[in-house]
Design brief:
Blueprint lengths: L23 H33 L4 H4 L1 H24 L1 H20 L4 H29 L5 H29 L3 H5 L1 H15 L12 H22 L4 H22 L9 H4 L2 H31 L4 H8 L1 H17 L4 H20 L7 H28 L6 H30 L2 H22 L20
Helix pairs in contact: 1-5, 1-6, 1-8, 3-4, 3-5, 3-9, 3-17, 4-5, 4-8, 5-17, 6-14, 6-16, 9-10, 9-17, 12-13, 12-16, 12-17, 12-18, 14-16, 15-16, 15-18, 16-17, 17-18
Organism: Acidimangrovimonas pyrenivorans
Main location: membrane
Keywords: Membrane, Transmembrane, Transmembrane helix, Transport
């Protein structure tokens, strides 16, 4: 048992020192996997349903896209504030509140009678998703032993890849026989199940006694939100003065935030963690890798359907080998990262991804299915070798009480990379037409190579775990 530290205000009687004992560990782990699966499924399903929803509400596509954009923006703006709040009141509480809010907002989505009400419900849903995504890796650190943390992250990556693969197929089938409201109704029983499991199984965590910094929360949310909207504006060819205005506001916001955060011991924008070289390098590598991934994921459907002439039904099949290969490799990479250098695993993965993207960009005008499939598999293997070891390094290099801040940065890095990649594809397509899809793949190869360089720079910061120190961190 651990008593609360002065200023915490309550007793914590089940803080997990090095993971939970079975069978509670498995129920808690299932809660985390269910939560992240819900968030990923909801995102992919909503993307597929957009045209149907826009038609139902007789709305323009440019307006209906906010059903997706509002959800993503709410997540990225709330990640760091909620991760920091989790350090104060407990990751368990933030996770359960997040799932509960996500579930209630899903009811709002089902009952929406206008595009405005649906978009509002989706923004609230994004806030709920931010709750679970901001602390999911942090709470996992209290569920499994440190010696199995990499493997646990690998299985989480498997769940994400499986959800990303299954989401479009589930949405396509459901929309063929049901209304779009049923896509959001799926979340309700799964959300209730997740809350029930988590209520009984999720552990308490270390807590800080410091007050929640409201000014930093608002400034970080606004500044990070402006990063995303500025990048998105570049991709959508907005007037230059609007883009410049957003960029200036973003720089000013970050300047004020950093000035404020330098005065506190444990800042919301985790400047203390960025002073750890291996953490900073891992964050930069993550942004570069996810930029490369989204450059490919957004541009490939255009290349397959418009440039190569594949029908829409086959485009989905052509996209599947990548997440399937990722699902197979991620758990293995997670296990390897518990005993092998994540720097070497990540570098090798990014080399494979860069080669795979180059080969996809050099495809002939009329390639066969298998000619595409093995290249997609190569990319999936490469990304799988990088993602889990890199996530383990990011979380494991932070002090355990700062796991929430590290988890928030992990999610922010992923979403920032995805936003940069999507904006770059939009920019290239706008300037070069369908040829921009091919150049997106070449640019993605460049970002993958950059991620590989950043990854190998961490090699001197890792040491293999001592044989008599099971469960100790291998990161220095």
């Amino acid at each position: 048992m651990r008593m609360a530290q002065p200023g915490q205000g309550e007793v914590q009687d089940d803080v997990a020192e090095d993971g939970l004992a079975p069978p509670r560990r498995y129920f808690a782990w299932a809660t985390v996997i269910l939560g992240v699966t819900l968030a990923v499924l909801d995102g992919t399903i909503a993307n597929v349903a957009l045209p149907t929803i826009a038609q139902d509400f007789q709305a323009d596509a440019s307006v209906s896209i906010w059903i997706v954009n509002g959800y993503q923006l709410a997540i990225v703006m709330a990640l760091l504030p909620l991760a920091t709040l989790g350090e104060k009141i407990g990751y368990r509480r933030i996770y359960l509140w997040g799932i509960a809010l996500f579930t209630v907002a899903s009811v709002g989505c089902v009952m929406s009678t206008s595009l405005t009400s649906l978009t509002t419900a989706r923004i609230v849903q994004g806030l709920g998703a931010a709750g679970l995504m901001s602390v999911n890796t942090a709470v996992l650190r209290y569920i499994v032993p440190q010696s199995r943390f990499g493997a646990a992250l690998g299985f989480n990556a498997l769940a994400v890849a499986a959800a990303a693969t299954a989401g479009p197929a589930i949405a396509g089938f459901a929309l063929a026989v049901l209304s779009w409201q049923w896509l959001f109704a799926i979340n309700i029983p799964l959300g209730i199940l997740t809350v029930a499991l988590g209520w009984r199984s999720l552990p308490e965590s270390d807590r800080s006694g410091r007050r929640f910094d409201s000014f930093a929360a608002v400034m970080s949310a606004v500044s990070i939100g402006l990063v995303i909207t500025t990048i998105d504006s570049l991709g959508h060819d907005l007037p230059w003065y609007l883009v410049l205005l957003q960029a200036v506001a973003c720089v000013v916001g970050f300047a004020l935030l950093i000035r404020h955060e330098r005065r506190v011991d444990r800042p919301m924008l985790p400047l203390d963690l960025f002073r750890i070289p291996i953490f900073s390098l891992s964050v930069a590598a993550s942004i570069s890798a996810f930029t490369a991934q989204i450059l490919a994921f957004v541009s490939l459907p255009f290349a397959f359907q418009v440039a190569m002439g594949f029908p829409p039904a086959q485009v989905g099949l052509l996209m599947m080998p990548w997440p399937l290969a990722l699902a197979v490799v991620a758990p293995l990479a997670g296990r390897l990262s518990d005993s092998r250098s994540p720097a070497l695993l990540g570098t090798g993965g990014m080399v494979l991804l860069a080669v795979g993207l180059l080969l996809l960009g050099l495809l002939p005008a009329d390639p066969g299915f298998w000619n595409i499939a093995w290249r997609m598999v190569l990319c999936g293997i490469g990304f799988g070798l990088f993602q889990t070891p890199n996530n383990r390094t990011m979380i494991g290099s932070a002090p355990k009480p700062r796991s929430g801040a590290a988890s928030g940065v992990l999610g922010t890095a992923r979403l920032t990379g995805q936003s940069i990649g999507a904006a770059l594809v939009a920019l290239l397509l706008a300037q070069l037409g369908i040829g921009g899809a091919t150049w997106s793949l070449f640019l993605g190869a460049g970002f993958a190579a950059l991620a590989g360089v950043l990854s190998i720079l961490r090699v001197d910061h890792w040491q293999p775990p001592h044989p008599q120190a099971a469960g100790s961190s291998a990161l220095r």
